[in-house]
Fold this sequence. Notes:
Helices cover 62% and strands 1% of the residues. By secondary structure, the chain is mainly alpha-helical. Residues 6-380 form the Cation/H+ exchanger transmembrane domain. It is a multi-pass membrane protein.
Amino acid sequence: SVSSIVPESCLLIVVGLLVGGLIKGVGEKPPILKSDIFFLFLLPPIILDAGYFLPLRPFTENLGTILIFAVVGTLWNAFFLGGLMYAVCQLGGPGLNHIGLLANLLFGSIISAVDPVAVLAVFEEIHINELLHILVFGESLLNDAVTVVLYHLFEEFASFEQVTILDIILGFFSFFVVSLGGVLVGVIYGVIAAFTSRFTSHIRVIEPLFVFLYSYMAYLSAELFHLSGIMALIAAGVVMRPYVEANISHKSHTTIKYFLKMWSSVSETLIFIFLGVSTVAGHHYWNWTFVISTLFFCLVARVLGVLVLTWFINKFRIVKLTPKDQFIIAYGGLRGAIAFSLGYLLDYEHFSMRDMFLTAIITVIFFTVFVQGMTIRPLVDLLAVKKKQETKRSINEEIHTQFLDHLLTGIEDICGHYGHHHWKDKLNRFNKKYVKKCLIAGERSKEPQLIAFYHKMEMKQAIELVESGGIGKIPSAVSTVSIQNINPQTLPLERILPALSKDKEEEIRKILRTNLQKTRQRLRSYNRHTLMADPYEEAWNQMLLRRQKARQLEQKMNNYLTVPAHRLDSPTMSRARIGSDPLAYEPKEDSENLPIITIDPASPQSPESVDLMSEEPKGCSGLPPSPEEDEEGLVMRVKEPSSPGTDDVFTPGTSDSPSNQRMLRCLSDPGPRPEPEEGEPFIPKGQ
C-alpha cells in the first residue's frame, strides 16, 4: 500500500538511510558508493537495458526536440546555475568568498543534468504517455555527452594558471568529439556483435553472452578515451538488436530480455540504497545560503529553460507541446546518482569545498526524488495528462504504418522536400540491399519486414496459448501440425479448394514475395528536379492555344451574326441604321405600289427629318429605277415573308461576293427583320 503512494526509489533511499544508521550505530564505518564501482559496474546494465529496448520510432521522430533539450537545455542550466551561484558566493559572506567562477561552473555542470536512473524509476510507475516519456528519458540519456565534456573541461581548467581563447575553442570542439566518438564506438561494436551472431547457430548457449560482452566492451572502450560511454551503450544496443534477434533462437532472446531486466533492476536497487548509506557515512559541510540557493536556482533554471526552448520548438513541431506537457517535462527533471558520483570524483587538492558541494548535491537529489517524485503522480491525475495506452500491435496496424510511411515518402519526393521520411526510406533501402545480407544468416535476410513481424506475432500468440493452458487437454500423441484439425468444420462442397503440395505452396509464396513485396524497388527513383522534358509538350501547348483562339473568334462571330428579335424601331433609329450602310438597302426590282420615304443621311437625326414625299407609286412601268431616282433617296418597301432558302434581310447584287456580304454583315447591324424560322441558315447554301 505504501509503494502505491511513494515511488520505489524513495523507499530504497529510506532503506539505505536505515541501514547506514544501523551500521554507524554499532560502531562500524558504513560503505560509501565509490565512483569507480558506480560507473564501471552499476550504471552500464541500466543504460544497456534502456538502449537495447529503446522504442526507436518515437525516439527518431522526436530526435530534434530531444537533442535541443539535452544539449541546449543542459548548457543553459549549467551556465545559468554556475553564474548565479558565483554571484551568491561573492555576496554570501566569508565562508563562500574563496569559491571561484570555475568551481561554480563545474558544480553547475554536475547538478544540471537530468538523471536517467531516477527518471526511469519514477516515470515507469506513473505510466505517462509515450511522447512525454521519450522526451524526458531521451534527454536524460543524451545529455551525458554534455555533462562529461563540461565536467572534464572545467576540471582541467581548474589546474591551469590561465585559460586562453584557444582552450575554450578546443573545449567547444571536444563536445562533438565526445558525443560523435561515443556513437561511433557503439556502432562499431554493435555491427561486430551482429556479425558474430550470424555464426552461432550450432552453439545457442553462448548467444546471449556476445550481446553483453560486446556492449560492455563498447562502454569500456568509450570511457577509456574519455568519450561518452552512455551514448556508446545506446548506439550499440540500437544497432545490434534487429540483426541479433533475427539470428538468435527464441530461447536466447528470452534470456537476454529477462537477464537485462533483472540486472538493471538490481543495479537500480543498489544505487538508491548506496545513496542512502553514503548520506549517513559521508562528510558533510552544511551552508544554508549555498544549499538553499542551489535548490532554488535549479528549479528556476529548469522551468525557464523548458518554457523558452518549448516556445522555440513549437514553431517547427506539427504536434505542439501543450502547457501541461511543458509542466510535466519541467517537473520531471530529476537528479540522481550520476551527479553524486561525479561530485564524489572531485579532488580535494583543487576543490577544497568538495564536502559542501556533495551536501548540496544530496539535498537536490533528495528533494527531486522525494518531493517531485511523490507528487508527480497526483499532479498527472489532477491535470488529466494523457496516460500510456497498453495496446497490442496488430498486422493491420503494421500494414497501415508502412503504407503511411511510403505515402509520405512519395509526397516528399514529388514536392522536392527531403524530410526525415525521405532519409529514412534511403536508409531502409541501403539496409535491405547491403547490410542485411552481411549481418543476417540464411533466408531471414531476404524476408520482408511485414512477414518477419507476422512470424513474431505468431510465436508470441503460440507462447501465450501454451502459458494459458489452452492446449493442456490435447493428447501428446497429436502433432502440432494437426492441432488446427481437432475440430474441423465441414465446408460447403462448392467452397472446397484443391489441396496443394508443400513444394507448390512454397513456389507460390516465393512468386508472391518477389513480385508483390518488392514492387517499390522496381520503380525508378524520381523527383521534380530530374523529370525529363517532353519534346512534344511545347508544340502541343501551342496547338491548344491556337485552337482556343479560333474558338473564341468563332464565338465572337456568332455574337455578331445573331439575329435580333423582331421589334419596331422609331423613325430616328431606322434612319440611323440606313445611314450607316446605304448599300444594304438598295431598291429591288419589284418595288411597285409602295410608299416611298426619302431620307437625307446628312441631315440632323431627328423625327422631323423624315418626310413623306409621295404616296403615289413610282416606277409603274416596271422598269428599274433610274440614277436620278437613286439620287433623290432610298425607297423602302414592305416585303413578303421570305421563302426558305433566301435571305430575309437583303438580296445581294450580282457584283457582291459572299465574303463581301459576310464582312458587311459583321460591320453593321441590318436593322429590324422578321424572326427566322428554326433551323434556317443565315447565309443560303447556294450563294
